[in-house]
Amino acid sequence: MKKNILAIGMAAIGVLGAVTLAGCNGGEEGAGAAYITTAIARTAGSGTRGAFDELVINSEGEALEDHIGEGDWILTAGTTGQVVTQVGDNSAFLGYISMGSVDANKDKIKAVKVNGVDATVAEVLAGNYELSRPFNLLYEDYASLSDAAKNFFAYIYSDAAAEIIGTEWIAFDKPAESPVGEYTAYTGAKATVTLHGSTSLQPMIKLLKEAYEDENPNVTIVYGGSGSGEAQAAVEDGSADFGMISRAPKGGELELGCAQVAIDGIAVVVNKNSALTNVTFDQLFDLFVEGTKIECK
Amino acid sequence: MVKINKTKFQDASAKYLFILCACMSIVAVFGIIGYILYDSLPALREIGVFKFLFGSVWKFSSDTYGILPMLVSTVVVTLMAVLLGGVVGVFTAIFMVFWCPDKLRVRYSGGNAFLKKFVAWLNRFNLRAVFDQVIKLLAGIPSVIYGYFGLQIVVRAMAQIDPNYRGFGALSTCIVLAIMIVPTITSLTKNALEAVPEHYYEGALAVGNSKAQAVFNIVLPAARSGIISALILGIGRAVGETMAVQMVSGGTANFPTGLFVSIRTLTTNIVAEMGEVVSGSLHESALIATGLVLLVLVLLINFSINLVPKEFKGKRGVKVLHGDASAEIVYTRKGVIPEILKYFTMVCAALVVISLAAVILFILINGIPHISWNFLFGGDDYQGNSLLPAFISTGYMILFTLIIALPLGIGAAVFFVEYAKPGSKAVKVLRTFTDTLAGVPSIVFGLFGYLLFTKLVGRSIFAGAFTMVLVVLPTIIRSTEESLLAVPMAWREASYGLGAGKIRTIFRVVLPAAFPGIATATVLAIGRIISESAALIYTSGMLSVDSSSVSMALNPMNSGSTLTVFMYSFFAEGLAFEEAYATAVVLLVITALLNLIVRSIEKRVRKKG
Hints:
The complex is a heterodimer.
Chain A lengths: L1 H25 L8 E2 L1 E5 L4 H9 L8 H4 L6 E4 L2 H10 L3 E6 L10 E3 L1 E2 L6 H5 L6 E8 L7 H10 L2 H8 L3 E2 L19 E7 L4 H14 L3 E6 L5 H7 L5 E4 L11 E15 L6 E2 L1 H10 L3 E2 L2
Parallel strand pairs in A: 2-3, 2-4, 6-13, 9-10, 9-11
Antiparallel strand pairs in A: 1-14, 4-12, 5-12, 7-11, 7-12, 8-12
Chain B lengths: L1 H46 L1 H6 L3 E2 L4 E2 L2 H32 L13 H12 L2 H14 L2 H19 L8 H25 L3 H9 L4 H12 L1 H17 L2 H6 L17 H8 L8 H22 L33 H31 L5 H5 L10 H32 L5 H15 L2 H10 L1 H5 L3 H25 L3 H9 L4 H12 L1 H17 L18 H4 L9 H11 L4 H31 L1
């Protein structure tokens, strides 16, 4: 009996060691894979997915959204973060995320050129980079917003905020008919402003929050959510002042107030070790629709 | 005279109160089914039930919703997982009952005083009890932790053998699920084996069988109905599992045509797309209808347990089997197969120990270096991420859930034990509903909470707590009931004899005597609340990691992330995992502590008894 126990113990330690080693080696593959074999799509309904599928059009004029189906070459990620995690872990993967999320994750992933154009704010502004979409905020109606919420709203359109937004996105000027006033520092009592919805907007809101809270210590900005679709419900049930959507409003969202606050580029990202530097719309189309591998060079 | 009437009135009204508590399960089950069915109707009507169930395309952009690939993936992955986890679980249980020695007998004759002490300390352990604790700990680990383990260890290992280096998909999902259902299957199989009358085993030995032959040819077949029930419960657990599967399955709605094909199960279809729906759309309704299909599937699986004939109830040797079932057992089979199987049980037991050790070491090695005072308890002025808001939210969640669930659960248990006639139809119906509620997957609770409670009180801790009440209610009822049953009838009779009314007897005699059992129920419920994530993400919400703040968490009308949800958000946001692992260490410590508490309560009760 003693021998048996001993044997079990030894076996346990042995296998455990093997497992631990396997786990440690997995991440460091050195040079990237020779081919991109796998495409990471976002979940259906996501603002990023909608924009990407609509904007990627191959040389025969076919849009990705009319042709993309399922396939074993496609993994589907629920959030921006899941794309980053998966691409960051495997050099045979390709995904797409908000341009604003690339910088924070550059230790894991990199953006590649699309049709030979760099994924930068300047190129989006110049109209050369073809993957871009609007960032919108939803709200119940302007009059019913709290003072703090109105103040933060005004801040988003201020010059200071435009500078912050301009680092990774494109600030959007306040429309002429907008009820939003000019920004001055908040003077009211302690208050919380809540935003809920798209994960693509969150990196931008994070930067704005930090700068805003420094100037207005009485206001706490809180944000969260796992997709554009949560925005409407959160605004309607009152659990958030603003809903964040990374696409044009639709359905019941059209009955709420909606303000565009920025333009975002969608970056096509691969593992930072990948040799891939450029993809064309045709390559993207074929990868997502048929699983055609892309050679990394 | 007046006084007696008052007592009578109290007794009668209390009785109805208890009945009301017991009926909560029925209300909950019908509420869940009703709400989910009602909100599924638009999709089922517009798409058609047949097209919804057997359509093989799920495509948001063209509003086409067919769940066949997910249905098939769910069934295939579950069956594979139960095959793998079932074999390991059943054989581990056999090892625990028949071959696990009570004590380690390590001998040490050297001169090193420290080693001598260490060996003596090692030998003091009751191995069987330790193994029991290992299984309980495995069962208590939150599924998000299994998800991280799957993502970092299983998927990476699978990528090495996948020709396309993906690793995500059917096989990884199946392995992770298998690890997760082993504890359930092991502990239930163990109960079934222990319920087989001792004379089966002894009789087999007496006619000249070896131990292995007696175990595998006699005891195991005799326990088969219990083992089948265990496997069915394992299937139910695997079908309902959400978060861990979401992290390793790949997420695309393919048919499972290969080991490394990215798949989506019914549960992950809901959790992946619920965040992206426009409310009131066909898409939302189709997702809720997915929940309905899942619910029906799980209910069917759980009801099928009732079809398994019950052979032995109670503890080993307590009840003797009557009838001629024993005549079927052939005593003459011999051979080497049982001897080989004996070693196989040891391999399986080792596998269980390895997987627990692997999961725990994985978390500890990666997590401990990132634990600091500020990470644990840093307030709002601390710049980095801190667990304090999550601690507060978790605390609130536990508090509000228990405030509602404990009186309801205890009241229901009192009705079952003190008022209901044993074996009456009403009790059977009530009990069936309680069991049904226990089998509902947590993502379905989440859907229900999203449909009802977030509409009532907004996305908030309260909405999450209301949802959790339904999740923990069956545990509390079951556990309290057992402890009430253990209170000797004579105590009640003595109390009546001294002139106390029924209600007085219950509150002054029975409930205090059953206190340890109620305490156990509470601790189990706390464990369940802490490990839950799928039911909370769409009810109490998931905050961005770096925007959660103490000031926000202090108001339970706000949304908030509990520890487990907080841990999941590192994955959802693509942050570095270090602090997620540190959170996991905290969760592991809490789980282990809760297990210790339950064990010490049980120990005290046994000493007293």
